[in-house]
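Open question from group meeting: does this chain pack into something compact, or does most of it stay loose? Before anyone orders reagents, we agreed to write out a predicted structure and look at it together. Recording both the input and the output here so the notebook holds the full record.
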Amino acid sequence: MKLFPSGHATHPQWRMAAALVLAQLRAQMALPGYATAPTLGLMYITDHYADEAQALLEYVAGELPEVTDWSGTVGVGVSANNAEYFDEPALSVMLLDIPADQYRVFSGVAPLPTHPMHPLHGDGGFTAHTALVHADGHTPELAELIHEMAERTDTGYLFGGLTASRHASVQFAVGGNGNIAGHGAASGVFDGGLSGVAFGPGVALVSRVTQGCQPVGALRAVTAAQENVVLELDGEPALDVLLDTLEVTLEGDPQPALRKVRATLAGLVNAGEQPQSQRRTGHFGTDTRVRHIVGLDGTRRGVALADRVETGMHLAFCQRNVAAARADLMRICAEIREELEPEELEPLHVVSDADGDTLPASLAPSTAAPPRAGQRICGALYVSCSGRGGPHFGGPSAELQIVRHALGDVPLAGFFAGGEIAHHHLYGYTGVLTVFVAP
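Structure tokens returned:
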């Protein structure tokens, strides 16, 4: 694979922004080292363009007839190499140089099969190894659908995110080269459900999850729960544990305590999963899903979360932490660099806390077609939470500048999502960085 052409632009008129992006793509496609005839495009738009998504897709696809397949979605922001466009009209496009027999676009009208396709049916015997997934957060039983989608791949590894829009929650899914029957009569713009691209075993990639929250209390076992309400932690009333952790009380004037509670979230680990070790420098591992606290139950002394809770889970209260988020993002980028070219790259500075302890590499490498040492990045995809973004990291585009500083000047596209997908889980306040690599 060669370098993936990419382009990004902002303009009040979508056609002008698209024209600027097309000019960048064509210029790169004429350069040595870049793909000259890619067939798969990823397109991400901010919700300012959501109502014109159909016209935008038709325009870009019509100007790039060699690109027969498209996937993408809408976010409150989009990202590119060293830049992010947050809450402004913009789009980011990347064209992937991947053999046509190593990917399949899927959507609600052309879902990914539950079994390998058969070569006698004219589909090349494609088997899904990993998958990029875009999903509507309002889809019923979404967590179960994501888990089921993971089971349709050999590795069980997904990456992607949820649409984030104040207008239409659109997704792009076009299989124009006939890889999957069913797309021919579809417009290519969908609202609701899941869509994306499945990749075959010949597509090497490495993916990492970076957390944006830091534990403020010990990891405890959920010993009593009902639906989405945590009733007991380690045998103690959950509300009492929360108040003790935050060192506040609801007696007298409860407003100061409630302000602290509103700034607090809960990190959940499924029952039966061994919680990854936490360090006070910290960040959660990939087994932890951060959820909002949505209410307090004074009668039962419980804490209500924005997710179903079961006895046997583990829980740690946490808060968003800028320093921990920056350090963890730098760490995963350093891991990717080291895995690709451990002997050729200059080492990054090791991130340490105030006591001189190095930050732990708590996130294990993904099982998604791990690349061999000495491979190079052809392109990168970054899906970050809409609650993160540059301002959270200290300034405009600061998050993407960290990624570029660590990975180098590589093609990149992505969006700011309403939730992030990695492995077979749905996350919050995280970033999912995936790089495509070749020798």
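Observations to bring back to the group:
The chain is about 20% helix and 35% strand.
The chain has two domains: 1-212+321-439, 213-320.
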